[in-house]
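Below is a filled-in request sheet from our internal design queue. Each sheet records the structural input a requester submitted and the sequence that came back. We keep these sheets so that new team members can see what a complete request looks like end to end.

REQUESTER: design group, bay 2
PRIORITY: normal
MODE: inverse folding
CHAIN LENGTH: 434
BACKBONE (tokenized):
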């Protein structure tokens, strides 16, 4: 007696064969444009082949045996925004409620111990000796806690370590449940307060735009020996962090200019040796008058170097280029041929700014422009300033009268959130078809 031949399809890793009776053309169906035979999907997945290798490109489809490829979660979002994690505040804004900032960039001084060739603070009016007084700073921290501000970055116009109250302000902010970040050139960091900073700060970012002594002196306009001082401090901060299991993130930020293209790979390698968590490369911002003289088109020449630098990333060290702003003259998430993809700055209520002299503004490039000054924390509490009619009048002035394509700095601080908020304010049709 002859054995009955099974008419089930056979599947191999090289070719999928379908029995003649299952071809679509024999059932009145349409032929595929490729001329390929159709798989009978009712038979798939019933007996998964668990012996096969689970690796990208090797696994056969419709086995349902688990994940083949897993994307790594994004530890640091250095090229984007995080407003999606603060939708409660966004919803209040949509309902025209008066909101407190989620985050505040704050200068603690109006002067610096370096003379970096790319410094935006120079255009904002540096004043030697000008700083926020201790009492006003501590009151400001308390007000931010009361307003439910979620983070503050001592990142503004002058060097924050020149204000002796910075260390106590970091500790106080932690007690008020406010995350604090510090951006510093690092030369004057007090090692006797290293534990206070690493225990209480969310991040410390070192502004370092050169990977050797000569490049350091050229870009930061200080002596070559200062390079060794800074490298030693970064290394010691990383060591203390590791020994005490502190959660504070340590990073290096490079401002990219044609003058330091040759320093990119040196810094990428140096970051690995120093034990920091990340190395970020960003564009050089310019004023609305182009006073710093940034040629964004020149960044094209550095594309290969930047991509090579990112390859130094490993499981404990991230190298990230801010591509959306580096490619500012190209088609990006934020820009098209140098023009923004939004027409109104909606971001100022979410991201506040305080200059190193204590004056409150909606945005850093408006420092010194009295029309946009919202108050002074030496003269009035920050809580009172945020509640004042003047504060909201300035925000309204920004939205109604600022031409973001002309009046604002290229690559501004608000870019990412402005694009997000613009999309919310200008929804497409048929939004329910998600």
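RETURNED SEQUENCE:
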């Amino acid at each position: 007696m002859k054995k009955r031949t099974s008419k089930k399809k056979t599947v191999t890793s090289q070719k999928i064969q379908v029995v003649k009776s299952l071809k679509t053309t024999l059932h009145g169906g349409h032929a595929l444009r490729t001329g390929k035979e159709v798989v009978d999907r009712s038979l798939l997945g019933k007996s998964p082949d668990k012996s096969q290798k689970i690796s990208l490109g090797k696994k056969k489809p419709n086995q349902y045996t688990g994940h083949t490829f897993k994307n790594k979660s994004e530890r640091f979002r250095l090229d984007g925004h995080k407003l999606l994690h603060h939708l409660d505040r966004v919803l209040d804004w949509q309902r025209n409620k008066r909101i407190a900032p989620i985050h505040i960039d704050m200068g603690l001084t109006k002067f610096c111990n370096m003379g970096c060739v790319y410094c935006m603070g120079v255009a904002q009016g540096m004043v030697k000796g000008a700083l926020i007084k201790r009492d006003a700073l501590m009151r400001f921290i308390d007000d931010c806690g009361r307003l439910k501000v979620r983070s503050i970055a001592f990142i503004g116009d002058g060097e924050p370590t020149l204000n002796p109250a910075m260390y106590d302000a970091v500790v106080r902010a932690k007690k008020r449940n406010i995350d604090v970040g510090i951006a510093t050139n690092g030369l004057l960091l007090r090692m006797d307060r290293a534990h206070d900073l690493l225990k209480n700060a969310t991040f410390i970012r070192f502004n370092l735009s050169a990977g050797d002594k000569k490049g350091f002196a050229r870009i930061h306009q200080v002596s070559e020996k200062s390079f060794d001082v800074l490298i030693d401090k970064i290394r010691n901060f990383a060591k203390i962090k590791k020994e005490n299991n502190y959660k504070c993130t340590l990073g290096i930020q490079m401002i990219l200019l044609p003058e330091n293209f040759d320093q990119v790979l040196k810094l990428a390698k140096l970051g690995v040796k120093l034990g920091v968590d990340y190395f970020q490369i960003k564009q050089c911002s310019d004023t609305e008058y182009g006073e710093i003289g940034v040629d964004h088109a020149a960044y094209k020449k550095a594309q290969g170097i930047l991509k090579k630098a990112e390859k130094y990333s490993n499981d404990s060290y991230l190298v990230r280029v801010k591509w959306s702003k580096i490619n500012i003259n190209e088609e990006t998430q934020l820009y098209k041929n140098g023009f923004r993809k939004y027409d109104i700055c909606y971001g100022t209520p979410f991201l506040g700014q305080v200059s190193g002299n204590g004056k409150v503004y909606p945005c850093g490039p408006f420092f010194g422009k009295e029309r946009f000054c919202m108050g002074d924390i030496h003269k009035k509490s920050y809580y009172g300033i945020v509640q004042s009619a003047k504060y909201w009048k300035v925000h309204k002035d920004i939205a109604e009268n600022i031409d973001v394509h002309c009046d604002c700095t290229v690559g501004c601080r608000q870019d990412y959130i402005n694009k997000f908020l613009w999309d919310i304010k200008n929804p497409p049709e048929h939004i329910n078809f998600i």
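SHEET NOTES:
- The first strand starts at residue 10 and ends at 11.
- Residues 1-14 have pLDDT under 50 and may be disordered.
FILED BY: M.R.
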